[in-house]
Amino acid sequence: VQLVESGGGLVQPGGSLRLSCAASGFTFGRYAMSWHRQAPGKERELVALISSTGGTTNYADSVKGRFRISRDNAKNTVYLQMNYLKPEDTAVYYCVAQFLVQSFWGQGTQVTVSS
User: Fold this and answer.
1) Which of 35, 62, 96, 113 could form a disulfide with 47 if both were Cys (CB 3.0 to 4.6 A apart)?
2) What value does the mean pLDDT take over residues 75-97?
3) Where are any strands of DSSP class E within the chain?
């Protein structure tokens, strides 16, 4: 099983980034996918979740209206479009696959929002 995140980096406040997570080694279309993040000194938090079919999405209040999660089951990939980024969005972002009690985590990608 592999979840490989990409697309992180340094961006100025107000800017945008698009994270991608390429999945392999499991039946991607059966799994709900989510993005979590962890900032230095803070607990890990759920940012966004998308159902296995993509029909349902949920977002943390802190990112509603700015972030959008999507998936392409034909490409085994989930995305997180992040707009109007703020310094408080700085964190390591993790891709997670979940089906019933089973979950897989990626290695994370760093997002830094700073001028």
Assistant:
1) 35
2) 98
3) 2-6, 9-11, 17-24, 32-38, 45-50, 57-59, 67-72, 77-82, 91-99, 102-105, 109-113
Rounded-to-integer distance, Cα 27 and Cα 99, Å: 10
Q: Residue 1's closest CA among 25, 23, 21?
A: 25
In DSSP terms, 98 is beta-bridged to: 32, 103
- Could you tell me which of 7, 95, 11, 83 has the C-alpha nearest to residue 46? 95
Q: How far apart are CA 100 and CA 43, in angstroms?
A: 23
- Reported as a single tens digit per residue, the pLDDT across 45-65 is 999 999 999 999 999 999 999
Least Cα distance to 72 among 104, 93, 50, 94 occurs for: 50
Per the DSSP assignment, residues forming a β-bridge with 110 are: 92
pLDDT at 34: 98
